[in-house]
Specification:
By secondary structure, the protein is an alpha+beta fold. It has 17 helices and 18 strands. Helices cover about 45% and strands about 15% of the residues.
Length: about 525
């Protein structure tokens, strides 16, 4: 008679928190001193599919990578998760199990809480990672909320450091890029600033008439907060001369910014960014509502914590060409390649003009005379020293002979002549442009696309990160960090498998050569 074994009881185990969860709030974390907690941690070796052990079934079904995934998670530093549970009371599910289920679901493109619950019940790979336990969506959600801070930053760094050390990956170069991902808030709730103010006023009046209704008061508070953020963004846009048509804001998620996505549609979105090494491992990740340049420094900090030093060379696209990034590279003595234009599309290293006029790059600056030489050979003289809405200082240069110039139609429509602004960071950009004239520097820079673009392709198309499922800036940061953790674990499995394949090939070669010492070394390494 064929042997079989039933899966463990699927009744949910409670979370044994050190402190009770406050009503309407998230659990509080405390370090634990004393005996270690006791977890529900069944072994997947006891699970059978018919008369076949689950391990053998996974290998036969070409799913042995799930076994590797479980080993990698178990090898990572889980002390931060374990320390928040107490040793008494009802047993909690081991953090390794829940973390493995979340990562497994993300790698399969199923990462809502309900999808993860279904995976734990019906997927053999999830059975292995969960040891047969079947946590429901509530248990998984509480685990994520309890460890939100740890999952957002510290665990990503410690896990990546473990992968780098285990696979002996070199420091090398690093390439950075960002994208735009739609926020969880509904696009149908996007309103202009003036409309939000009117809605907030009506909601407050209704709340004053119905003081006993908590939901009405909560809605009024939400709208007033959204109106305040909308007013701030409207003021910023008007100071830059861009807010004439009115700023839009998502009422249900005001932290997100309505901005164009890659497909040119305008949605409330965030900008996640990633820094990857030559093996396409994510070695730095962060998220900002609108800026890619603001997260360069924290991503470099993560790289330094993982490798113990900064990258040998950092490759960034033209979107990062700013005084903040270039000045940071100078301050850190970091070799940076960052053009001011799209070098992959054309053999130009500066931005073109949006209106079909001569771009700024066609005007040559003469440091000795402090003038610009225009394409017609005329000089633009410095006339004023000003400051823009963002506080950036610049000199304004204007041409004197523009009215009678033969190239006027291709240069300017102003009756006062063509003007050029020279900001404080112009010397850094000019130095970068000069560096990128060298063929060797261009060769290094062209590797950027092959390093970082496939990473976002996997995150968006394979893991399904087309829209965030969690609402708010902190929750979006947490969700993106989890995707990066899942991506790194998936990549580590492939890199480890490739290394073992090369090692097995060396084993066969050494066996044929008869080298006993090296043969023993390869044998123990494979084991």
């Amino acid at each position: 008679m064929a042997r079989s074994k039933r899966l463990p009881e699927s009744k949910q185990s409670s979370f044994s928190f050190l402190d009770s969860v406050p009503e309407g709030g998230r659990p509080r974390e405390k370090a634990l001193s004393g005996p270690p907690p006791n977890f529900h941690d069944p072994s997947p070796e006891d699970i059978f599919i018919g008369d076949q052990p689950l391990r053998a079934y996974l290998r036969q079904s070409e799913m042995s990578w799930v076994i590797r995934l479980g080993k990698l998670i178990a090898r990572s530093d889980l002390s931060g998760f374990v320390s928040v549970y107490k040793p008494t009371g009802r047993k909690a599910i081991h953090p390794r199990i829940l973390l493995g289920l979340i990562v497994y679901g993300m790698l399969d493109g199923q990462w809502s809480l309900r999808d993860l619950e279904k995976l734990a019940r019906r997927d053999v790979g999830a059975w292995w990672l969960c040891g047969g336990l079947q946590p429901d969506h509530s248990t998984i959600g509480k685990f994520i909320c309890l460890h939100a801070e740890l999952l957002t930053d510290r665990y990503f760094t410690s896990l990546t450091k473990t992968i780098v050390k285990a696979l002996k990956l070199p420091k090398g170069d690093a390439a950075g890029d960002g994208t735009v991902i739609e926020a969880c808030g509904s696009r149908w709730k996007s309103m202009k600033a003036e409309a939000v103010r009117q809605e907030a006023q009506r909601a407050r009046e209704q709340a004053e008439k119905m003081p006993e209704d908590v939901q009405v008061a909560s809605k009024a508070d939400e709208l007033e907060q959204a109106a305040q953020i909308a007013d701030e963004r409207q003021a910023q846009a008007e100071s830059k001369g861009k807010g004439k048509q009115g700023v839009k804001i998502c009422v249900t998620e005001p932290e997100a910014v309505v901005q164009p996505k890659k497909d040119k549609t305008h949605r409330a979105s965030y900008k996640p960014s990633a820094l990857v090494n030559e093996q396409r491992l994510i070695v730095g990740q962060s998220l900002h509502p609108t800026s890619e340049t603001a997260v360069v420094k924290p991503m470099l900090g993560q790289h330094e914590e993982i490798f113990g030093s900064l990258p040998s060379r950092m490759l960034l696209d033209a979107g990062y060409s700013s005084f903040d990034v270039l000045g940071l590279a100078v301050a850190l003595d970091l070799d940076l390649l960052c053009p001011s234009g799209n070098v992959e599309a054309k053999d130009r290293w500066q931005k073109g003009s949006r209106k079909g006029k001569f771009p700024k790059g066609d005007f040559l600056y003469d440091e000795q005379t402090d003038t610009y030489l225009c394409p017609a050979g005329e000089r633009l003289i410095c006339q004023s020293f000003e400051q823009d809405a963002e506080g950036r200082k610049y000199h304004r240069y204007r041409g004197k002979h523009c009215p009678g110039c033969a190239l006027r139609e291709k240069c300017t429509e102003s009756s006062r002549g063509r003007t050029v602004k020279r900001y404080e960071d112009e010397p850094l950009k000019e130095a970068m442009a000069e560096v990128l004239q060298h063929p060797k520097a261009r060769g290094y820079y062209r590797r950027r696309v092959g390093m970082v673009e496939p990473v976002f392709s996997v995150l968006v198309h394979r893991q399904g990160l087309r829209r965030f499922h969690r609402r708010g800036l902190k929750q979006a940061k947490l969700e993106f960090a989890l995707h990066c953790v899942a991506y790194n674990l998936g990549l580590a499995i492939r890199l480890e498998r490739d290394q073992d394949g090369r090692l097995f090939g060396s084993f066969v070669l050494i066996y044929r050569q008869g080298n006993a010492l090296m043969l023993m070394f390869c044998f123990f390494r494979l084991c």
